[in-house]
Design a protein that fits this description.
Membrane topology: Multi-pass membrane protein
Main location: membrane
Distance between the termini: 35 Å
Number of domains: 2
Structural class: mainly alpha
Order of helices and strands: HHHHHHHHHHHHHHHH
Number of strands: 0
Shape: globular
Largest sheet: none
Family: Belongs to the binding-protein-dependent transport system permease family.
Strand content: under 5%
Number of helices: 16
Helix content: over 70%
Subcellular location: Cell membrane
Radius of gyration: 25 Å
Keywords: Cell membrane, Membrane, Transmembrane, Transmembrane helix, Transport
CATH topology of the largest domain: MetI-like fold
């Protein structure tokens, strides 16, 4: 007993962090947190700055004049914003649900040691983590063979499955679902699909939360797929709409061939503030969802990373 206590005390002393080290880590974490928070605060301040103040003095943390014209402009364009928001929500929800289902199924199959094609399929999944066919080949496949252009599926399917996520699922299932449990269920006559649905999934909440958050962030922040495959403005997501505004608003405002009404409308629009206000609208929903999944996200990511 005495030796065990001494060993435990020795281990605890080795794992202790000195006060200086702890203070250093706290400072590092505070700096990193500020690096994440300050840009968002700065964007919000710009969104409530008057357009004239921005033109005269540029971006400032404390503008000379505040204004909510940017948000009033977005409110007037509410139909377009709400439609784009609906597209973003639909793509995120459907893509995340489909991605979680496919990724966990693939990860579970590859985690089973008795699966005959395990080595070959693992290699097939692993290769895209190193290199892929390139953007041109992906574009040709998605448009010419799968006919996804100007389709909602063009925003969903290309991001649905990631090799990295599949490897995380494989590692999680292999290290957290004992073979003895699987064998016991098989003896009782359960199929692999039944085992997956009634045993593996209920024990995998951290994993599902981790994969779901990865996919949610990916779908919510994506604008690149829209720039490749979408020409119909009715299918623009909120992020694609922001990108479209970002690239074209200045061109429209300076184009002398536009009609007087359109020219006056563009000149009166709070250009910089509207961009930042739309960015805030994009940031807030996804930022509000993260705290609800933080516990599962951290534990699931840790398991996949440490034991992989």
């Amino acid at each position: 007993m005495g030796k065990n206590k001494e060993a435990e005390n020795s281990a605890s002393r080795l794992n202790m962090i000195s006060g200086k080290t702890n203070a250093f880590f706290n400072i590092v974490f505070i700096v990193v947190a500020l690096m994440c928070i300050i840009p968002v605060v700065f964007i919000f301040i710009i969104s409530i700055s008057s357009e004239q103040s921005i033109k005269m003095n540029g971006y400032r943390f404390i503008p000379e004049a505040f204004s909510i014209d940017s948000y009033l402009f977005l409110f007037r364009e509410g139909e377009t914003i709400i439609h784009a928001l609906g597209i973003s929500i639909l793509v995120t929800v459907v893509g995340t649900a489909l991605g979680v289902a496919l990724t966990t199924l693939m990860g579970y199959v590859l985690s089973r040691s008795d699966y005959k094609l395990k080595g070959f399929c693992t290699m097939i999944v692993f290769i895209p983590m190193i290199f892929n066919g390139g953007m041109i080949s992906s574009y040709v496949v998605n448009t010419q063979f799968m006919h996804l252009k100007d389709s909602m599926w063009a925003l969903i399917l290309p991001l649905c499955v990631s090799s990295f996520n599949v490897i995380i699922c494989k590692t999680f299932f292999k290290t957290n679902i004992p073979d003895s449990v699987i064998e016991s269920a098989q003896i009782d006559g359960a199929s692999q699909l039944t085992i997956f649905g009634k045993i593996a999934i209920p024990l995998s909440k951290p994993l599902i939360a981790t994969i779901a958050l990865f996919l949610t962030f990916g779908y919510w922040n994506d604008w690149f797929q829209s720039s490749l495959y979408i020409t119909n403005t009715k299918l623009f997501s909120l992020q694609a709409l922001l990108d479209h505004v970002q690239r074209n608003i200045q061109m429209m405002a300076n184009n002398p061939t536009l009609g007087v009404t359109m020219q006056q409308y563009m000149n009166s629009m709070p250009k910089e503030g509207a961009r930042m206000a739309m960015a805030i609208i994009i940031i807030v929903p996804i930022a509000c969802t993260y705290p609800f999944f933080q516990k599962y996200f951290i534990s699931g990511l840790t398991v996949g990373a440490v034991k992989g």
